[in-house]
Design brief:
This protein is α/β, with parallel strands linked by helices and 247 residues long. The protein contains nine helices and seven strands. It binds NADP nicotinamide-adenine-dinucleotide phosphate.
Amino acid sequence: MKRLNEKIALITGSARGIGFAIAKAFGSEGATPILIDIQQEMIDSAIDELQTAGIKAYGYEADVVNTEKIAAIMKEIVKEHHRIDILVNNAGITRDNLILRMKEEEWARVIDINLKGTFICTQKASRYMLKQKEGSIINIASVIGITGNAGQANYAASKGGVIALTKSAAKEFASRNIRVNAVAPGFIKTEMTAFLPEEVVTKYQESIPLNRLGSVDDVANLCVFLASEEACYITGQTVNVDGGLIM
Ligand code: NAP
């Protein structure tokens, strides 16, 4: 028996990177992944790749901070598939700068997409989950939201906010059997970290007890567990997947 059989799973920012790996892992466990991302071309190629792997998936182009569009997409999904079992708020960006040099737009865009986008998608999906009296929401945070990081005040604040939002939502929704958890990845090999110079990567790697950068599958495997029945007594938690970087 597959662990997510017949579940309808919505994953934001899933045309590539961690979100795509989550969509693929969910699909392999019997779920129907529904992708939301901002570039239609990227969504199309992600869906092709999933279909090649034998996974039936659907995609919608939207910015997670476009409230009306997100609400319309959720409505459409429920019309087509009758429910939303799992929501993964994964879409996220960085705009790194030191506080003294940080432009207000850099602050605002990161807080908007990473934190407000998570709020909007949670609000719109939970409407249906509350009626179903069942659901699992997974918010992709970051270890930086726990430790902070020089040059990433906006990103750290957004991810710290995601962790606090996770706990509040877990408390609000628990009586309706909706679990809300956060996943805090450390350094994971994706486009987001690909721009880092070799020597910086080596330095990071040396600080990781398990002595390697994480893979997208390391994060996806945890998400499968949190979304599944095996995690039915876990809510409001932030689980790090970071090779022991912070403990
Ligand atoms: P990624 O490779 O940059 O992928 C993110 C995806 O989200 C991209 O397809 C991106 O589209 C899309 N996206 C960006 N803004 C969006 C918006 N407003 N609405 C909808 N989709 C949007 O990133 P990743 O490394 O897989 O990271 C995924 C999540 O994990 C993020 O929340 C990130 O903060 C978190 N995380 C990553 C790491 C890491 O080491 N990689 C560590 C800790 C936490 P475009 O490519 O077109 O912009």
